[in-house]
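Re-running the complex after MR caught last week's input typo. The corrected sequence lines follow. Everything else is unchanged.
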Amino acid sequence: FPMVSEKEKEDMQFAKKYLENFYDFKEEKNSLFKSKNLNHMAEKVREMQSFFGLEVTGELNRKTLDMMKQPRCGIPDIRA
Amino acid sequence: YSTFPQSPKWRKEDVTYRILNYTPDMLQADVDEAIAKAFQLWSSVTPLRFTRLYSGQADIMISFASGFHGDFYSFDGPGGTLAHAYPPSSGIGGDAHFDEDENWTKFTTYSGYNLFLVAAHELGHSLGLGHSNVFGALMYPIYMATDTRDYRLPQDDIDGIQALYGPPRESPVLPTKAFPPQEPTETTPAEAPTEMLPREEPTAMTPSKTPARPEDCDPHLTFDAITTLRGEILFFKGSYVWRRSPYFSGIEHDTISSFWPSLAPGFDAAYEIDKKDRVLFFKDDQYWAVSGYNIEPGFPRPIQNLGFPTSVRKIDAAVHDQKTKKTYFFAGNKYWSFNENTQSMERGYPRKITSDFQGIGHRVDAALQNNGLFYFFHESNQYEVDIKSKKLIRTMKSNSWFNC
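Corrected-run output:
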C-alpha cells in the first residue's frame, strides 16, 4: 500500500476532530473493523460537503479540508 | 435556517444580558457597543427587548475566555473555533463565550475578527437559532469579513428568528411628540443602572438609504448581470441580489455587500467557471475574480488583460459555456469568444451579434447558461437560445425565473 504521508495523517486527524465537533462523528476506538470507521467517516464527510454546497464525494479533498480550516463558530452544524 | 432540537426559546420578551469581562484587544466602550448593536439586530425584527445588567444573574452571560474555561467545549487557540453559545434555558443556557486567543476588533479588516459580527451570530444561538447552510446568512457557521456599516440581517436569519418569536409588535403610530423618557424597568436591581436598548423602530419617515428593491414580479424588471454560483443563480441589479437556489425554495433577497463587502454595486457582467469554482465580475474597465466569498488576490485587473481593444471601456454581458470552455463577451452590437484554456480571444472576433444570433437584434444586458441552453437578457425580456445552432427558441419576461 502507498505510504500515508505525515501531512495526510495530520489532515485525517484534523478532519476526524472537526467531524466529531460539528457533525456528531463518533469513532469506535477499539473497532476491529477499520473499514467500518472509514465508511462512517466518509458518510460524515458527505454530510459536511452537502451542508456547505461542496461536491458530495465523501473524500477528504482539498476543497473540503480548506472549508474545514475556515474560522468558525464552535456550535455543531448537525446535532444528534 | 435551523433551530436546536425541540426549538428551545425564551418564554418572555424581556431578556437580560450581562458582560462579565472584556478582551484586552478592544476598548471596553467598543465591546459594549458591538454587543449592544448585535442585540439590536435581533430586537429590530422580533418583539424581544434586551436589558443590560451590571450585576447578578442575567439570562445571557457574555464572557471572554481561552482554552478550557469551565464547560465541556474548550477553545482551541488562534483560528479554528472563534466562539460558541448555548440555546435558551436556565443556568449556562443563553450564555455566549468568545475565545480570547483570537484577535478581536471593531473593524472588518483581515487581521482580526469583527466582534459585532461574531456576537450577532452567537446571540442568534443564545436566542435559539442553530446554523444555516445558506451562504451569506448570519447564522452560516463560517466567519465572513462583511462590511458592518448599515449591516442588514439577511432574510434567512429573519425567517428563522421570527419562526421562534414572531415579528416586532406593530410599530407605534408615529408620535406627534417625543415618547415620555424610558421609566427604569422593575427588574432593575436598585444598585445598578440598566440600559434599555432603543428599539430601531422602522418609521415611515426614515428615508431609505438605497433605492428600494424592485418587486420580483415587476413586468419591467431588468438586470445588470446574471451568473451561476455553486449550483445557484444570482441576478444582480444595483446593490441588490436575487438568489435562486436548489437548496431552498423561493427567491432569497440579499445585497452585494452582504457577500462581497469590498465590491461596489452595479456590476456590468458576471460569469462562473464552475470547474475552477470561480466567478468573475465586471464593472467599467475592470474585473474581479472571487471564489465563494473570497476575492482572489491581484484583482481588480483591466479588461484589456483579456484581449479587449482599448476602445472597449466596458462590457454589457458575459457567459461561459461549460462544455466548450469558451466565454462569450457582449459589448454594444458586437460579441467576442474567449478561450479559457488558452486565456486568449479567439481569432475572427469581434462579430456582430445580429449576424450570428437570430432574433437578438440589439444589445445584451446579461447572459446565462442553464441546462445547456443560453439565455440572453435585454431590458425586461430574455431570449432562450440553442447555442450550437444559435437558433432562438423562445422569448420570456426577464423575471420568469422568479415563479411569477
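None of the earlier attempt is carried over here. Helices of chain B lie at 28-43, 115-126, 155-165, 256-259, 353-356. Chain B has five helices and 26 strands.
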